[in-house]
């Protein structure tokens, strides 16, 4: 998985289970659908596949920006579904995938458009490449996360949300700023396509989000990350985040997820 942050859960997608009701404020939960392969073999297999699948990035053709069109936003949601979930082949699974994608898309649109009271402002930031021969070994990615802009086919290869709000649902709440106000923001749903890992895309996305947060007048920026996600923690430390607090073990057990750190970055410096 190419998961770089710990999004807020509102429901779990389980194999052969119905989807429980979900509000539009909810944010994607990473979840791996069970399969018959043993855990250690699955991890080795996934690591091998990712090592073989990495595509060299042509940085001169990369754009990191806020989304421009709904079609691009939909492609970003498809990348998140592709990254945060693994679907076991079974009857009707494509309909489940499509339903989940549309629900996430509508929820993200509602947050961005200001329909959700708890979110003062939300931006979706994407890393985009034009479809080209250099991506020929990433056919699946291009097929699933492609959109058209100005007559050119492009693909979303990384994405995140910047949320100006006091808290995210079911997550640790930041302590800063200490005075009342809305100068606090959280990064969520950070992911990079597995085919383009180790190309610095996560760093570029987070750096862009910090710049935008400063433009909004944000003084304190937060991100949640699973305690065992060492790669993501190192990325955020490189981007200037430091430890502030961590999730109690009881809460992680109750929400059926790994415990999380809350990391903080002072945007005044």
- Unreliable stretches (pLDDT < 50, length at least 5) are 8-26, 29-52
Average the pLDDT over all residues and give the rounded result: 82
Number of strands: 10
User: What is the overall shape?
Assistant: globular
| Class by alpha and beta content | alpha+beta
Q: Strand content of the residues, in percent?
A: 15-25%
* CA-based gyration radius: 18 Å
Q: Note the run of SSEs as H and E.
A: EHEHEHEHEEEHEHEHE
How can the largest sheet be summarized?
8 strands, mixed
The rounded distance between the terminal residues' Cα atoms is 33 Å
Tell me roughly what share of residues is in helical segments: 25-40%
Q: Supply the number of helical segments.
A: 7
What does this structure look like?
α2 packs across α3. β7, α5 (201-215) and β8 (220-226) form a beta-alpha-beta unit. The chain has helices spanning 39-53, 70-84, 93-112, 139-144, 201-215, 230-238, 249-254; strands at residues 31-32, 63-66, 85-86, 121-130, 146-149, 152-164, 184-192, 220-226, 242-246, 260-266. By secondary structure, it is of the alpha+beta class. The protein contains 7 helices and 10 strands. The chain is 32% helix and 23% strand. Strands 2, 4, 5, 6, 7, 8, 9 and 10 form an 8-stranded mixed beta sheet that branches.
